[in-house]
Amino acid sequence: MIKKLLALPLLVAFFTTIIVTPSQASAAAFDPARIIDDSVMTNKSTMTPAQIQTFLNSKVPTCDTNGTASAADFGRPDLTHAQYAALRGWQAPPYTCLRNFSENGKTSAQIIYDVAQQYSINPQVFLVLLQKESSLITDTWPLNWQYNSATGYGCPDSTPGVCDASYRGLTNQITWAAKLFRNVINQSPTWYSPYIKGNNFIQWSPIASCGGSTVNVQNWSTAALYDYTPYQPNQAALNAGYGIGDGCSAYGNRNFFLYFNDWFGAPIGPAYSAAFVSQTAFQTIEIGTKSKVSFTFKNTGRFAWGDNVSASGFNPVRLATGSPINRESSMYDASWLSQSRPVGIFTAVYESDGTTLSADQHVVNPDQIAKFEFTVNVPKGTVPGVYTENYVLIREGASDWAINGSMVWTRITAAPAYSASYVDQSYYPTIKQNDLAEAWVSYRNSGTKSWYDKNSAPENQNPVSLATAENVNRKSMFGQTWPGHNRPSILFSAVYEPDGVTLASNQHVVAPGQIGKFTFMLTVPIGASTGYYREHFRPIVEGSTSWDMGGQAWLGVNVASSTRTLSYHSQSPYPVISRGSQQQAYIMYKNTGNVNFYDDLSAKAGIYPLHLATSNQINRVSAFSTTGAWVSSKRAATTFSAVYEPDGVTLASNQHVVAPGQIGKFTFMLTVPIGASTGYYREHFRPIVESAPGNLWDLESEVWLGITVI
Asked: What are phi and psi of 175, to 5 degrees?
């Protein structure tokens, strides 16, 4: 905030740096010959717009927009910032912090990012530049003139406080700074640069009498910083950290170095280093075959790489096996240089965008990208399984041969033609007797051949089914609804892409890497013993000698005790029916047990449905049965005419299953034969679990209707 105290002259690089800030980095590490490396200066991919915005937010968590905070930082705790600004004749509120600033419809973060991309300059460089020149990164109540001269461009030291109006504005300021950096780095013949890569006399400060020293500038990025701020810090400035040195001290390049270190790490890169860019996906390779693998790396060091063509005999960069280096790979191919050297020539060299091919395909300059492609061979006799192959870039013959940051690996699945890997399954179900639950198991095709189900298999292709396991083809007690007692499913219920989410275009073929899902029902017989069961499954290739695909899985099935009880709820009024006529009647029961009741329309195979039968005696032939309406003269109804929630009013979502607490309604016709005697009759009914073994059919809920025949 001392910047505001000193006002406009502080835009000059010499003055703007005397802001006392706690330092993490040490100025003792400052090297005037190499302030920043080219690989760091030109790395435009260090931050996204969102990351820049997050950084700005972190530096100013709260903006003093209205100037209400205390001016104690200016020695006036009795005033607010707004009052202090008025006292000094500065701008009145509101104040817009950089985190909230926008210009021409773009946020400050987007402006910084866009200029960085346009000129291939590290966006971190602009963040540091804005701080050292105008304190905008950390200022909680910046003034408008700070934005107009944000990077100090067009504000020469020869005229402190006077800036060229043609360079005003945040976008303009950052853009012109970027143009300067890019033109100097590119050694543009149309851009005058008083500083070069090599020996330069650089002053300690704008005061010529303070002197200077000759500096052997090691790269063009450092030369560009001297073009921007043409002074080097003297020993007093370095000893002061972020603080004030002596009368001959300059601080711009010192502060650039300190801020960059504290915020983003050292601006100096190693001589040889690499950053992983991309690689081919992990592969499944059929045993006895081979496949292409590739890796791409960015040269993040200070020196260029050569390959066998451009640097033969001079430490060429090659891709070697790793973990440990020079490991003899069992998956080497005859095309390799040796069993530990997959490739010694760059397959392709790209500019930093990763798309544009470089003019020289055998030299990788700093910030360029190299691709290494080679063949991996999975020989016959390889044990099926997952193998990790490690690789590293080396400088062949150098003492420090491994290039930092280049250790990579790929995963190769050596697979037979048919192989399944378990992916996921449904939860372990709890099922009561005479009930069922849906279950599913999914497998990834970890082999090399596509799977077809019963509906999609061509004549010459064996379909893949889900079978019982342990033992294979074992008859299951839970399989009453299956295509067979040892085949839970012969169709894929869903096929997904490898991400496990996106549905594949073909829902009946599982290509290698895709995931096939088998869905089936587990049915518990009405007389099954309660307890915990493990039901094992595995996919198999039907009719094939190589039917075993692996991938055995199991579901824990808890068969719970069941209570099958109904209570009478209500019925239609006692009817008065003329001889030869008929009338509709109904009886309603509430499910007071803990199991579902199914009717003929909802009961799957193996599930015993609930019917309304005649009673007193059970299965008595009724004189009032209706031909065509009753299933027989002993069964008034075999389907629910309505199912209600416990309130007896709201219709349930499923009108053919009565869940615990719900109410089921049986509706039927009563027919009086034309020759029947007049009088009063009692017609008895009771719900039964049809065909249930033993006495499990009897729910003991008998009711009766009084029928008057006239």
From this structure: -65, -45
